[in-house]
Amino acid sequence: MNRLQKLTALDTRFFYWCNDLHRDLGLAPVSRFVSRLGDGVLYLLVGLGFALWEREQGVIFLQVGLMAFALELPLYLILKNTIRRDRPCDRLSGFRAVIKPSDKFSFPSGHAAAAFLFATIMSAFYPPLAPFVFILAGLIGLSRVLLGVHYPSDIAAGALLGVCSAVVALHLWELI
């Protein structure tokens, strides 16, 4: 077994472990709620809220966030449609997801990318909120695994994509 096969096997085992625990604890309603927090509406509302609340820093926060999402979204779509990794609910026999995924492919997780992008931008502008937003980002990513629509490595890749997009946007903003 080569390294990629070993990583895939580990990823699949962790996926099953998370889902067994999820089912045993009856966390589907909580996971659905947490996952919906990462659908995108919350990020826009928070951005607009800060822009209205803090005219100077809040407006910059919103602009940098929009720039970061403008960088992340095309990269996410290119990766997802190039790699074309089947979702666990489509690949693993006898497994059913708790929710119906919005598209066919799983790698990287768009929810994780957006959540970690938002957490990175938020922590750069409002450092006291960093622990809260990063915990929330982690929970959003975990909820996607628990709902059966992503492998753990999808979440890790999405988190990396989101953080990198946010860091690039923050550096680009400094150059403007």
What order do the helices and strands follow? HHHHHHHH
Using the coordinates shown, work out and report the CATH topology.
Vanadium-containing Chloroperoxidase, domain 1
Helix content: over 70%
Largest sheet: none
Q: Roughly how many Å apart are the termini?
A: 50 Å
Assign the CATH architecture.
Up-down Bundle
Oligomer: single chain
Structural class: mainly alpha
Total count of strands? 0
Radius of gyration: 17 Å
Q: How many individual domains? A: 1
How large is the count of helical segments?
8
The dominant shape is globular
CATH class: Mainly Alpha
β content, as a range? under 5%
Give an overview of the whole structure:
With 176 residues, this protein is mostly helical. The chain has one domain: Phosphatidic acid phosphatase type 2/haloperoxidase (Vanadium-containing Chloroperoxidase, domain 1, Up-down Bundle), CATH 1.20.144. The protein is built from 8 helices and no strands.
Keywords:
Vanadium-containing Chloroperoxidase, domain 1, transmembrane, globular, PAP2/HPO, mainly alpha, 176 residues
Summarize the structure.
The protein is mostly helical. The chain has a single domain, classed as Vanadium-containing Chloroperoxidase, domain 1 (Up-down Bundle), CATH 1.20.144.
Q: What's the SSE blueprint?
A:
Elements: H1 3-25, H2 28-37, H3 41-53, H4 57-83, H5 88-91, H6 110-125, H7 130-146, H8 152-175
Helix pairs in contact: 2-7, 3-4, 4-6, 4-8, 6-7, 6-8, 7-8
